[in-house]
Task: structure prediction
Amino acid sequence: MALAQLAQVERNDAGIAEAVGIFRQRFGDAFVTGHAVREQHSHTTTYIPSQLPDGVVFPKTLEEIQDAVRICAEHRVPIIPFGTGTSLEGHVNAPGGGISIDTSQMKGVLSVNAEDLDCTVEAGITREELNAHLRDTGLFFPIDPGANASIGGMTSTRASGTNAVRYGTMRENVLSLTAVMPDGRAVTTAKRARKSSAGYDLTRLLVGSEGTLGVIASVTLKLHGIPQAISGGVCPFPSVDAACRAVIMTIQMGIPVARIELINALGMKSLNAYSNLGYAESPCLFVEFHGTEAGVGEQAEMFGEIAAEYGGGPFLWTNVAEERAKLWKARHDSYWAGLALRPGCKALATDVCVPISRLAECINETEEEIARSGLIAPIVGHVGDGNFHAMVLMDADDPKEIEAAEAFVARLNMRAIAMEGTCTGEHGIGQGKMPFLERELGAGVDVMRAIKQAIDPLGIMNPGKVFTSTSG
Amino acid sequence: MALAQLAQVERNDAGIAEAVGIFRQRFGDAFVTGHAVREQHSHTTTYIPSQLPDGVVFPKTLEEIQDAVRICAEHRVPIIPFGTGTSLEGHVNAPGGGISIDTSQMKGVLSVNAEDLDCTVEAGITREELNAHLRDTGLFFPIDPGANASIGGMTSTRASGTNAVRYGTMRENVLSLTAVMPDGRAVTTAKRARKSSAGYDLTRLLVGSEGTLGVIASVTLKLHGIPQAISGGVCPFPSVDAACRAVIMTIQMGIPVARIELINALGMKSLNAYSNLGYAESPCLFVEFHGTEAGVGEQAEMFGEIAAEYGGGPFLWTNVAEERAKLWKARHDSYWAGLALRPGCKALATDVCVPISRLAECINETEEEIARSGLIAPIVGHVGDGNFHAMVLMDADDPKEIEAAEAFVARLNMRAIAMEGTCTGEHGIGQGKMPFLERELGAGVDVMRAIKQAIDPLGIMNPGKVFTSTSG
Result:
């Protein structure tokens, strides 16, 4: 995507210069303007070109975030919240310059309430750091996007991952959060009760708002008990269609599958090559069950029977932790394995999510188009949710390849929308998908604009993301 | 609660008179101004006095709702969305007059997508009607507030019921909805995909907005497979504390309990008297498990062992449908059984919800206060969520009794808030709980006000509910 295609944000040079001076005074060494650090803070995991902020501040407390926001508000300077920078749609870019607020110095675990199965953490802690902290409690936080993202960033993009089919996404797992609003006030969106009918659902409004409504400072999360027993395995299928039928039946039978991931034939080929494995090079489902010893055995057997009905199998499963770890390591390496299919290339991630009844059709049409167009694009999917990623490998220095890849992504997004699906299941809109949000939700985007205008009238919160301030 | 204590809404007499004339012309017999119908549409299930709308319109289509809203917008006339009128906090009252939009003529099931486990229905269908419609599909819609409420109404108040601990509340079970916004535009908040990161979560913003942001016309709901097997039973405990400990342990062990309901000693006494039953008159848990034949047996046995650890039991459970039906009939009769404790009285419902670790403490303090004050108030609770209702019986014609009951409720609400809980787990704020929303969420209410002002700048959507337009 060329810079010119991204939403433009006018630069307020005078305000930025003043704010940078004040930040230097107020934050000292915790405010950095060196090129390398600014570059790193606008680095995106995709091919979207970097747009550097003018400075990066590293607050250590809620109050320091408030101070940073107030300085920016006073001088009408853009604020770009930053977690770990692993987002995929240019969320951390600074199209109008401004200040990146990096929460990586805020990793505190403020409370763990084991009896309530919840915890409150500062926004900068990563999901792996949180799970390391929880190690001795018998509890864990399940949401696992590919990257070791920060909890604040995951909240901002409404992230999920491989086990959303069982545990939900960030939407279901954030109980409450504290955000610094564009005027500098701190707002806690809800109490810690499991359910509430007390007014508008501000928690869910902030979850997935991609830094455009406030800076998330801390988050109260649901935790889950580490299952007594886990079983899992890999099952090959004769076709994507057969695999999707098996997924639908598994879910319809109420089998509480914890993970059910599809990798298509090309994806399996890349895994075998990358890690020297011997899996079948046909569409495979990677599945996992969580529960009691008896339960997970029963579930695995039921799944094996369903798979066989659709021509799948053999379903080889295990409850030995080491073997499972190997299997999921292979699944989690799929990004790197995919990249290795065409060394030196960049990957363009796609993220459509459709009703599960349309999933096979959507993947089939996409595979056909990949074959027709000559693109190299393995597919992995969180198919229990109807969500899949085609990873388009391209030479990011070749405008023709970029154009072809972008045309492919556009058609894929529109295909998903036509099938009552969404252009983004878990990555967010950011800069890359703005045109598709309009196509997907129409007048709903005007409601979002009204909300944005009401909460951030100066337009300083992560401008140039999600939608433009005027329709069209 | 005296009328004078409710939020005041100024009447726009001229606008209302004009609008009534236009409604007559446009809607003919589907617009009613007779006193009895207006009275029925402001009837609340509580003691909050009625405030009648000036007319009631019965739209049959989305377009008719849009017309009704446009007429009201043009003449600045309040709109009060109406489902079945079973809400508990005065939600359907018309403090500034205006037009009640009754969706009871809109009961269509627009689609059932069995493979996707979802359906789309018009707002006026009730939960029992929906489940009757689904009878042959093997699917059901689990959310079950006490009343046979409409899906639109349940969406508006973010309702739940006895099995939220397993299936979630309306927050988790509404996938998307179509609402007529205050300017008459219809907005569909999301596509039908199971998860999405596409922009602000308008679905969750509308869920629980109590008719103050738009009129809900249709709703896409998650459905669930009817479980293969169900087991359930009743288990007495020596104390509320012991019962709550058992609940915490059950949930912490990851036992996927479908229902876990507490009835306190007075509540059990009322049930026995009302239905001539022979239950122990000590705090009891009513529990139910959904799953496979083997699974529900295992779960019931594990629960029995946990109960015994805390001095509870005997836990008598069954998987015979008729016996279970009897048990849950008794539970569902608890409202009427409670009323029968003091014939001729009205009940004031409370609805606090606290983190489960504070539940025993919260119920104990509440029981102590009931004992001290001489009130009669049995307690039933959806204790898996930390939510309970104390049902205060009072002579609604005796100002002293009302005052005592209201003081009790105020202290209960503040107790829950102090324990990091909420004043309302599932009933909503309506008119009755407005002062407590401020105490609970502070500056968050200002964010709600900003959103309300942005979406409904004329203030015509259900005015005088949830919060006032200015702080304080």
About this structure: Chain B has four domains: 3-103, 109-225, 229-336, 342-440. The longest strand of chain B covers residues 215-222.
